[in-house]
Amino acid sequence: MQHNLFTTMRSLKLIDGCKGTQVYAINTSAPTTGGGGGGTAGGGGGGVGDKLLHHLQDHLRVNSIRSKSSRIHQTPSQTSIVLDVLPYGLPMTDLLEPQIEPCLKSVDFVEALADLYRRIENCPQFEKSGIYLEQCAVFRGLSDPKLFRRSLRCARQHAVDVHTKIVLAAWLRYERREDELIGTSAMDCCGRNMECPKATLVSGYDPESVYDYCVCTREPREELRDDISMEDEECSTSDDEGDMSFCIGDDEIRCVRYKIASLSRPFRTMLYGSFIESRREKINFSQNGISAEAMRAAEIYSRIKRLDDFDPRLVLELLSFANRFCCEEMKSACDSYLASMVCDIEDAALLIEYGLEETAYLLVAACLQVLLRELPTSMQNPNVARIFCNAESRERLAVVGHASFVLYYFLSQVAMEEDMKSNTTVMLLERLVECATESWQKQLAFHQLGVVMLEREEYKDAQIWFEEAVEAGHIYSMAGVARTKFKRGHKYSAYKLMNSLFSDYTLVGWMYQERSLYCIGREKIMDLNSATELDPTLSYPYKYRAVMFVEENKLEAAITEINRILGFKVSPDCLELRAWISIALEDYEGALRDVRALMTLDLTYMMFYGQLHGDHLIEVLQPLVQQCSQADCWMQLYDRWSSVDDIGSLAVVHHMLAKDPGKSLLRFRQSLLLLRLNSQKAAMRSLRLARNYASSEHERLVYEGWILYDTGHREEALAKAEASISMQRSFEAFFLKAYALSDQSFDPETAVYVIQLLEEALRCPSDGLRKGQALNNLGSVYVDCEKLDLAADCYMNALNIKHTRAHQGLARVYHLKNQRKAAYDEMTKLIEKARNNASAYEKRSEYCDRDMAKSDLSMATQLDPLRTYPYRYRAAVLMDDHKEAEAIKELSRAIAFKPDLQLLHLRAAFHDSMGDNISTRRDCEAALCLDPNHADTLDLYSKARERVNEQQT
Fold this sequence. Notes:
Number of helices: 49
Organism: Melia azedarach (Chinaberry tree)
Radius of gyration: 33 Å
Protein name: Ethylene-overproduction protein 1
């Protein structure tokens, strides 16, 4: 069937600038031929369709000259497909470019982790917060966001001053993006002092209290009040009691002299010193900038030392009065009172100016807290942006003690997520540079400013900032220096710079990747292959090789190459590339699947060199595939789920949500799939939408519980589950509670309770997808409790409703029953059924002899190099064969791109067995940096440290 899609695409703004992440930046110097230009620069007078056609023809001509010895000849059918669905032609290697990552990267990551752990353990208590913040910066570059959030919580736990507390508490809240939850307030908290807006305004070091329930969750106490009302207090200064007066205009405020004198030293000097006022009963105070009403309030405060029931306007005037006459106690009271009044952005934006003018520390803190807890929305207010962005504003904040590296680190991260290229992002990073004092802070600030300038194509400034970062000690920034040199036309200089790293430092994947940009031919491919060998998680080498195959007209090989990384690391740019190639292969269903999955990961993604929004491409592709009803979609979802096809399942859910966007159940399913694909940011967004669309209170509580659980608030998640169950018994509430309870030390009593909860869940209505998961989990608990027959029943029931992953649990049961052949067969079934079967190969290796195990584990590593068990197994076998150096090398190969706790612990144990105490200690320290409570590593570390100390003494 032929479709001319230009009619569909005429209405799309295809030539608009990119508003989202670009995979392939347009190279304006790319070679073109013929009279038509690219984009809107085509032949004059033509319509949009003609301009697109000219643009397409240019791309087709460029793509037709891709081999030194041959031309690509496209068949009429292929040309028609490209004309219809690929108005920007096929991807080109010339336009591919890896991103310079905006994070700290060390050439010796294990040593960096070990050093962090040592400093955290040995530093004074009051300095721990700063080192944990440095740990946050290091963990930011890892794929596990839980490590970053854990460090952020530790930094908040050990914070001493109010400023640091409010920033870190707001940052923790931002990580859950609670601003997107309908009906929540910026000043809400999750129930613990860790994030409580009231607790953060209390200064002092008390690391244990952060886990206590905050004052927000307690019943309000009736404050003890005097029987005398404020009105009575105002009238209590009789003429007999007052011994002096302040005259302001026609008003006379009767006062007690010694009470007023007690407010400050200036008043005491004025009223009891050698000044003429000390001998007067009436003092003219009209020229001192205070109203009679405010002076009356000051008189009342001088007696009762409270500001109860005063109008905020009066307290603001009192604050200014207290500042002028050095009334520190009254200033502190005004500061606290006004701080308690700040509750929204409008208040904060107004009152922060007063606070800055009067150097009111708590008031400014309270205003900052609201503005930070409202991010990113608050930065859309130009008055708020001005408070943070200007150099002068930073100096004003510094005067009052509220300009810090942690503040601008938080603000700049939010700005970079919102719009990497914006002026706001640049200004905030410039403020970050001004606040940077320690080496790691300078490295991070300089490097990130370089990354942003590179994105803005301001290459000269980018090079300067990258060079500053290198000077501060950040070796990875040399990749930025090389890139900017290349952009400025100095390709050989860029090559020489990257080449110099190879003799000075331990080789890592990104060095080869970056150097490959400045090579050609066989040398380039060798560098890309070396990059993949050292770090298989780098996506650029796969993408380059895939596009190279496209240029050679080997489209099937291109798909195979990009599938290599999509099998274990799903990203929007790789999905886009596979969709692009699938269209050229006329596989429209595959293309549509990938674009739907892509748009689930990134709602704003722009395809085809940043020219076409993914949603528009979906509209174009839909007529080319078979149309499905919602019932058909459910059937497809079951099929994809049972075949462990997470990308396919994600695409089906996206299709279903297009027809029913308010279906919270589908949003929740979407979040589960995204978590399986290690896309936690997108998963949290889906969870928030599920919560917002929830049709009942008990359902909303469940989704809030999952949000809390996934961001490390286990106890709060349990409380949400219990609250939901108290309203209505439901599958998801019982499942959430069981899941959260099982995520701890699993004692027999807890196991029995978890079993009861899962059984209750299974009695509640749900669909087969979730019941299969519950049966699978229940089987796992039964296995842990050594109830193998009950476990087998659960797994069989799960398999009956197509929960394919239950094969793995059933294999475990057979293995424990010494039925290895049956266990092997179960895993073989899983391998045959599952689309993503690296874990199945890994598990099957446990049920066969050594040679077959090696083969299965080799396949597992090939399919998913991030799985750590195969490396550990191979290393253990080498150690058994007394090949210690090879065993260490096998573990080091994986640690280089995945610093995993188990890998580090095992390498430490190997070093220990070889008598290398220093290496043992280093690996233990790196492992404990990842998990400071890992008991086996702590034990090994203690012994290694003692032996090192003995050697040194």
